[in-house]
Write a structure and sequence with these properties.
33% helix, alpha+beta, 245 residues, 12 strands, four-stranded antiparallel β-sheet, 6 helices, five-stranded mixed β-sheet, Zincin-like
């Protein structure tokens, strides 16, 4: 056994999230049931969280045992990630980024105005000349998401007669959203970069957890009823994952 001490703990706020205690640090472990998976799978994500995939006929208990049997492998992956952290790509004038589902080029301010960057119809205040403007643009997009996503959640919740207690917009590095038993929906600010049909799918996905707090076959039937095109939305996310980093 390595110097890593792994303990699986149940999250109080999200039934699909556990935590690994790694040398005194809490490492998120997303537990995902995939009806297409044929075996248990464990991997370390680029952001340092782990993902445990459980096949359709598998159990969470056996999945946890599988994770425990593979902690030494996970520890080595974690050390490798710490030695070579993945840095986000810089955004410069001329860089194309996704905004509301379209590739939009970051341009200099209107009429050569200094200290601003144009992103479609959005004007973003920046500093540092023509250098990396990623942090400024991200902050602006996050503000847009915080203003637009909560009203859409409450709108869709009301349409499906569901009660939402609170909505938060966060920087979830490896998840698009989450739903707690207490009725709190948390969404990733990067949804502002996705097209409306993908944004709505993620919101509906989390809302359906208020009916089924799992990823069972019954849960996916609920999703399909309220969002028949959800597979197209998932495919879009897979195809554009590299542009949402």
């Amino acid at each position: 056994m390595t110097w890593f001490n792994f303990i699986l703990k149940r999250s109080e706020s999200d039934s699909d999230t556990n935590f690994l205690e790694v040398h005194g640090r809490q490492i998120p472990l997303a537990v995902i049931r995939n009806h297409r998976a044929r075996r248990y799978l464990l991997r370390l994500r680029p952001d340092g969280s782990a993902r445990l995939t459980i096949p359709y006929r598998g159990s969470v208990i056996e999945g946890r045992r599988f994770a425990e049997r593979n902690t030494e492998w996970l520890a080595r992956q974690f050390l490798r990630l710490q030695a070579n952290p993945i840095k986000p790509k810089p955004w410069f004038i001329g860089t194309e980024i996704l905004f509301r589902g379209n590739l939009v080029k970051l341009e200099a301010g209107m009429n050569g105005e200094s200290g601003t960057v144009q992103l479609g119809d959005e004007r973003v205040a920046v500093s540092g000349g023509n250098g990396d403007v990623r942090s400024h643009v991200m902050k602006h997009l996050w503000k847009l998401a915080a203003a637009e996503l909560p009203p859409k959640v409450f709108e869709l919740a009301a349409a499906h007669q569901l009660s939402v207690r609170r909505v938060t917009v966060r920087n979830q590095r490896s998840r698009w959203g989450s739903c707690s038993r207490r009725g709190t929906i948390s969404l990733n600010w990067k949804l502002i970069q996705a097209p409306p049909f993908v944004r709505d799918y993620i919101i509906l996905h989390e809302l359906m957890h208020l009916r089924q707090m799992n990823h069972s076959a019954r849960f996916w039937r609920e999703v399909e009823v309220v969002c028949p095109g959800y597979k197209t939305a998932e495919q879009w996310l897979k195809q554009n994952a590299g542009l949402l980093k």
